[in-house]
Amino acid sequence: MSEPLSLVLITKNAEALLEKCLQSCAFADEIVVVDSGSSDRTLAIASAYQAKVIHQEWLGFGPQKQFAVAQASHDWVLCLDADEWLSEKLANEIMNLLADNQRLAATGAWRFARSNKFMGRFLKFGEGYPDYSLRLFDRRRANWSDDLVHEFVRSNGPVGIVAGDLMHESGEDIALYLGKQNRYTSLQAETLYQRGKKVGIAKLLFSPLLRFVKFYLFRQGFRDGLPGFVHISIGCFNSYSKYAKLIELHRLAKPPLSR
């Protein structure tokens, strides 16, 4: 008998790709959608798939996702973003895993490769792939971190790998993507500032360079063509921007940014 599974999502104005996400997870025994104030068709789509919809004001990525996990009826949860969907191979592998009680008992958290779509292309190298993401876990043995951005799942045991790809199709153009990265780097700088982290000019200059060498050369990002180059270049600038903002917070003795 397969272990029951809850599909858990956080949403806000996610109508563009939500249905594709839900269709790819048709095998889930329950769908939990925690929404922070959608004004589009997100709630109607979720309701059409018999999802349990809960409103929760925005808490930050980590706390919001952990809140959503707590609303699930089953201990095994699959946490996706609304702009993600399972490849057919990954869906089949997860179903096979849920039917293997011995493997589930031994390993309470599982990750899989994520393929990010950028400039019309699903990246298969560099920073964009395999981008392993831990999204399937027993909530009694793992939980989301409380980070406001770049949250991650913490497991108190071994982590397994499920074959197949999680497809990430945000639908953002570069302008929207850059806007989101600007917000993310501000939150990252704030978090580092609150922890008392300091950096100097060496970190500011060499972190982006080392990042480019790692992802474009060693991780063969050049094989993704121009989209791969642009994606990695933005990631390098994000590293520079994060540390520049952190230096600014210390130099101006600014209070933490309001949320």
Give a short synopsis of this structure.
The chain has 259 residues and is an alpha/beta fold. It is built from eight helices and eleven strands.
Description:
By secondary structure, the chain is an alpha/beta fold. The protein is built from eight helices and eleven strands. Strand 1, helix 1 (15-24) and strand 2 (30-35) form a beta-alpha-beta unit. The mean pLDDT is 94.
Instruction: Give a short account of the largest sheet.
Output: 9 strands, mixed
Query: What is the N-to-C order of secondary-structure elements (H for helix, E for strand)?
Result: EHEHEHEEHHEEEEEEHHH
Tell me the strand percentage band: 15-25%
Q: In percent, how helical is the residue content?
A: 40-55%
Class from secondary-structure proportions:
alpha/beta
Please state the average pLDDT score: 94
Question: Which keywords apply here?
Answer:
single chain; 259 residues; alpha/beta; two-stranded antiparallel sheet
